[in-house]
Amino acid sequence: MAEGRMRPAELIRFKQSGRAITMLTAWDGLSAALVEEAGADVVLVGDSLAMVVLGHATTLPVTLEQMLHHSQAVCRGLSKPLAKQPLVVCDLPFLSYQCGLDRAVAAAGTILKESDAAAVKLEGGEPEVVAVVDRLVRMGIPVMGHLGLTPQAVHRLGYRRQGIDPRSQDKLHRQAQALQDAGCFSLVVEHVPSELAGRLRRNLSIPVIGIGAGADCDGQVSVTADLLGLTPSQPPFTPARMQGRELSITALKSWLKEQRDQGATPTTPPPQQASDC
Ligand code: KIV
Prior knowledge:
Elements: H1 10-17, E1 21-25, H2 29-38, E2 42-45, H3 49-52, H4 64-77, E3 87-91, H5 101-114, E4 119-121, H6 127-138, E5 143-148, H7 154-157, H8 166-182, E6 186-190, H9 194-203, E7 208-211, E8 219-222, H10 224-227, H11 244-262
Parallel strand pairs: 1-2, 1-8, 2-3, 3-4, 4-5, 5-6, 6-7, 7-8
Helix pairs in contact: 2-4, 4-5, 5-6, 6-8, 8-9
């Protein structure tokens, strides 16, 4: 089905050749088409869509069914021939991979079976998560890891910068190594000091893709809605490239005003019919 499309392992070759990897999020056909046309290497159906488009306060409530629905829409929105399409990676949502290895395989397998996503991403580096990665990879499912600020752990870690003291940096480093050893083909590191991201980049053979982690990474990822200035509140590490929200509201207001200014033709009510009753 997805023959010819960029494979996850291609990202490792990008790292080896020093080609910067670009990844942008998409949540539906419209956003996927924009990201594809702009030329991103990877389209991430991130579970940030829980907050960006579903109106939740955290990423925790989004379900596997909803992620699948959005992954299918993103894949339908890609229009180039398959061989030229970006790699689509879909986030595994909270509780879809924490309740046993078999359930994790079923969740990840469903995403790959029922949408054209070619890989999944999951958060954390605890031994239980590493075991899930190991099992998924053995089952033929490519996995991208995610360390640092992991929004699914918001109630434990908050949305704070991670890896700020030597002890937590060493822990994060060990977890990254374990994820690589378990077979992850790449690793997102979110909101960590740039020195830590650089150390990871140098010591890992898989690409380190940063967000709020400085420039010393093998690639960068951004939440598209933040980049376009569409979200009401901006994360500190993603300055908007345009004021999308304001521009959209201005355009919509001007259309609404035009309609009201044109007015509508008054309609004379039809004469009352004589009624028997
Ligand atoms: O869900 C998401 O958008 C992500 C990115 C922040 C990497 O995981």
